[in-house]
Amino acid sequence: MQDVEAAKDERRGLIVREREPVNLESPFEELNELLTPNDLFYVRSHFAAPQIEADGFELRVGGAVENPFAIGYAELRSMPSITRMVTLECAGNGRLFLTPQAEGVQWGLGAVGTAEWTGVALSVLLDRAKIAKNAAEIVLEGADKGTPKEKPTPAGEIRYARSVERARADDVLIAWAMNGADLTRDHGFPLRAIVPGHYGMASVKWLADVRVVREPFAGYFQTTDYAYWAELEGNPVRRPLSSMKLKSSIARPRMREKVKAGSRYMVFGAAWSGEADLVRVEVSSDGGRSWAAAEMLDKPRPFVWRRWQFAWDAPDVTGICVLKSRAIDARGNMQPEEHDERFGSYVVDHVVGVEVEVR
Amino acid sequence: MQDVEAAKDERRGLIVREREPVNLESPFEELNELLTPNDLFYVRSHFAAPQIEADGFELRVGGAVENPFAIGYAELRSMPSITRMVTLECAGNGRLFLTPQAEGVQWGLGAVGTAEWTGVALSVLLDRAKIAKNAAEIVLEGADKGTPKEKPTPAGEIRYARSVERARADDVLIAWAMNGADLTRDHGFPLRAIVPGHYGMASVKWLADVRVVREPFAGYFQTTDYAYWAELEGNPVRRPLSSMKLKSSIARPRMREKVKAGSRYMVFGAAWSGEADLVRVEVSSDGGRSWAAAEMLDKPRPFVWRRWQFAWDAPDVTGICVLKSRAIDARGNMQPEEHDERFGSYVVDHVVGVEVEVR
């Protein structure tokens, strides 16, 4: 990795990117399994992690509904549950690869992971609350709070909150378990949202309030942070980030790895999209001049990454080789060569070359 | 005035607050007439003033309409016109009085003025274009463009643009004259919008495009700049600034003016509101402990300021007196004592004390 200051947290096997609030990166070069082990799953926090006791905890459901209610943790867990595999990627994953360097947590490749999440459908809770006909969005609000840094900044402490569009709410889980184990505090205990296909910012941790609103939500993490400049008939307009863009990453070889000349090396990685289905990954070992299809190791599942591999025959002569991967989706879209500046320091989905030393 | 760096522009009688882009303040202490003379009317620019020739100039009307069209300057001027008196105040007027000092043009009292504007109703143009049933807002776009400074900032040059809600559009003028004279370049020649009751940011100068859109407009000057943090059920939410708040200002005496002990001084000022009707102004000569009604000099007109005066008998003893004025509207709202921090460096509508030296 390029970031020499990041130190491995030996206790947990995660790369510490920030201690307060805690932001930990998965060691992507160690990717093997389809499901990321819980203790290697990246942790993204905006404020200090609240300490919440399950006993007495209640999730509130209110706003533009006929029947606002609060539901206890135990009651929620006794309801019929769904277990669903979902890949989450932080919208700032890969920020380390931006030039010039951008402000924010310096994520490398590993602010992404896949788990099986268990919980109830948000739609079941909304049906019980009977949402108003003119409801527009559902605001998911965490118990975590603090003072954000980006401008323009509201005065005082705010709670983390994001919204999902009403139509999108059918997909969303209110989860209490991750790969079969109760959520840890870092991952949002006792409850978190899981919004399949969206960047991780939408999967609100320490979920405390589900609030139905009648107009598009213009909260801080929806407009100032986790937002970008789209274009509307020639004008830049501010829009919230939403679905994960088509992307592939190379887990192995690592940046600057030494490979024996003339050997066969199994290039290994993962690829995903929160939009159209991912159908193919291609690999180049000559810096992008020629490309060949990689072997997909996982069947397609909605909003879940697919691991891939590619047998690369390292050249007989010594020197630097630049390996690249690119993903292609069912609509024929291809992972871009360059970062789209409209996204600022987010959506770093462009092809990143991995320089390998053949010797 | 507190701002010692601001120099009078002798050529024009305006106070130069910024040269590029040109931002000029009206000398509020010279307020006399109901209508501000054109050469004393404040000038607010975001980018360099475009040089537009009337010959060949066309205003475009398009977007979510059945019949998009362009109309020439001469044709527009040949249409039945409306002349309407309107007070415009810059949303940053009074920024000089914020503590701590805020970024932005350091306006004192005089980024406000009243003129008679002549033009056609925007609604006439929209009727001709036949706007779509599901239209939400009307974007007014100027020909001026540049790179804004506030964060988050879109990449590259953008044009100045603001929107008015569909319902609000009935009020709006597309004006070519100001107090009977053609607009000058600084005031938006050949055409500008006039949005009565709103801060000046809505009255787009060098108007080039009227564009109907189907969703609330989230442009830079609607979300990043000229916006504030409202509260929605405990969450800060970003909203565009809109109507001018209830406010009064003292034109005379000036800050630090010397007044003869025992003399009668005619305190003079103006007051306005873009919301409920302004009904009363009160004056205090003891720093706000006691208040008495001022005499209103102008009849009430919608979205037009009213001048007022108050006969103050200066004390017989020498010392500092703090004069204050406050406005009251038809709903019983009173001009606030403190600046509302949610508005950042905008909406500086609080009561400002004028220190006078009695000697």
Q: Approximately how much helix is present in the residues of chain A? A: under 10%
Q: Could you give a short account of the major beta sheet of chain A?
A: 5 strands, mixed
Structural class of chain A: mainly beta
Could you tell me the mean pLDDT of chain A? Answer: 95
Helical segment count of chain A = 3
Account of the protein in words:
The structure is a homodimer. Chain A is about 5% helix and about 40% strand. The first copy, chain A, has about 350 residues and is mostly beta strands. A 5-stranded mixed beta sheet of chain A has the order 5-4-13-8-9. In chain A, strand 2 and strand 3 form a beta hairpin. The longest helix of chain A is centred in the middle third of the chain and has 8 residues.
SSE arrangement:
Two copies of one chain form a homodimer.
Chain A: E1 7-9, E2 14-18, E3 23-25, E4 58-63, E5 69-72, H1 73-77, E6 82-89, E7 112-121, H2 122-129, E8 137-146, E9 158-165, E10 173-178, E11 181-182, E12 192-194, E13 207-213, H3 220-223, E14 227-232, E15 235-240, E16 247-252, E17 258-259, E18 264-272, E19 278-284, E20 292-293, E21 295-296, E22 306-313, E23 319-329, E24 354-358
Parallel strand pairs in A: 4-13, 17-24
Antiparallel strand pairs in A: 1-2, 2-3, 4-5, 6-7, 7-10, 8-9, 8-13, 10-11, 10-12, 14-15, 16-18, 18-22, 19-20, 19-23, 21-22, 23-24
List descriptors.
homodimer, 359 residues, mainly beta, five-stranded mixed β-sheet, five-stranded antiparallel β-sheet, 3 helices, 24 strands, disordered N terminus
